[in-house]
Structures are given as C-alpha cells and as structure tokens.
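W.,

You were right to be curious about this one. When I first looked at the sequence I had no strong expectations either way, so I just let the prediction run and decided to look at it fresh. Below is the sequence, 210 residues in total, followed by the output.
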Amino acid sequence: MAQAPQVSDAARAMVGAWEISNAARDKTCPLVFAVEPAAGGYQLELDPRCGTVFPAIRRVGAWTTGPNDTVRLVDTKGAVVFDFSEVESGMYEAERKGEGLYFMRTQAAIRAATVSPEQLFGEWMLLKEIEKPLCKLTLSDASAGAESYRIIVKAPCDPSIAGFAPATWRFANEELLLFGRNETWRFVESDATTWERVPPSTDPLLLMRQ
C-alpha cells in the first residue's frame, strides 16, 4: 500500500472539490482532493477532460503539501508538476515556464462568485478613463428575447458610442455583451463595479456602475 505523508491540518483543509483554470478561465479542470494515500502523496480525482485541456496534468498522479503550505500536484514518483501558492484566501496560483499562470479555487467559491444578469441591472457609464465619461446607459431588465435585455441610452453620448448604438445586452460565459449596430462589444469584470472591454488595448474602454 502506498504510504502517504502524515496528514497535516493544511492537507485536511484542502479536502473537497476544486478547479484549476488558466488566467482567462476559458480552460478549466475540475478535481477533488482526498487524504487517502497514493504513490507520491495523497489521492486526487481528476476530470477525464483535464489532460486534454492542460496536457501537463496527464503526468499528475497525486498531490501533497510543500513548504509554507503550498499545494503540489506531483507524478507517481513525487516530482512536482504544479506548485500552487496561496495568493489570497482560498485562491492559489502556480506558474509553469512557457505556459503562464494557473489558478486554483474551490468549486463552492466559484459558484458563489458567479455573476447573474440580475446583478447587472441598473445604471452604468461608458468611459475611456475615470475622468472622461462617454455615455450613460441603463442595463434594463426588459427582455429582448434569447436571454437578452434592452439597453436604455441616455443622451448626450460621445459620437463613438452613438455610432455603435447599443441596443441590447446579455451576460454569457462570464462576459457582459453589448449588442449595437452590426457589432458586439465584450466586457470582462475588473472589480465589483468596473468591467473592461476585451480584447485589451492601449486605449481601454470601461463600463462602470453608477
């Protein structure tokens, strides 16, 4: 039988359902930590799709804790594949050379943080910079069909916004979508009150709650 290291309080605190994602969170890998022994550390359960999404995970056979309560995903010989450090409460981060950053959170925290359309109803402002407002608008709760809602634009608006003529909006795949004249603008959440248009540019467009 495989011998696991002594189970620490830090290891017990990790037991349960987690998710690994890339920075954009358009690639995710659900996993479940346990403290039963496995070759190289403790047992974990990986979604079968994880190896397709993140090829390096195919090497992972167990998990363990490291110095300063880091969380390590290891192969069956104990070699570290991912080394996660806690960067804020319940949020872990790891970097792999040539692949960028990976993040890990509990699945419960992700569900709790999920934005719903109801949370977006209300008054907003489009602006280039904090001191340069372009247009005020309302993300209304009036249905426009297909899980979309109507936008109420409040004049005056900068010509760049008036030309886009936002008419409806929808929240999908963690993006706030504004639909205008033959174009769709996509925004992702920066913080609790501010969304930024993507893809990023040197002249960012912000959507800020009023």
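Here's what jumped out at me. The two ends are 60 Å apart (CA to CA). And, maybe more interesting for your project: The chain has a mean pLDDT of 88.

Coffee later to discuss?

I.
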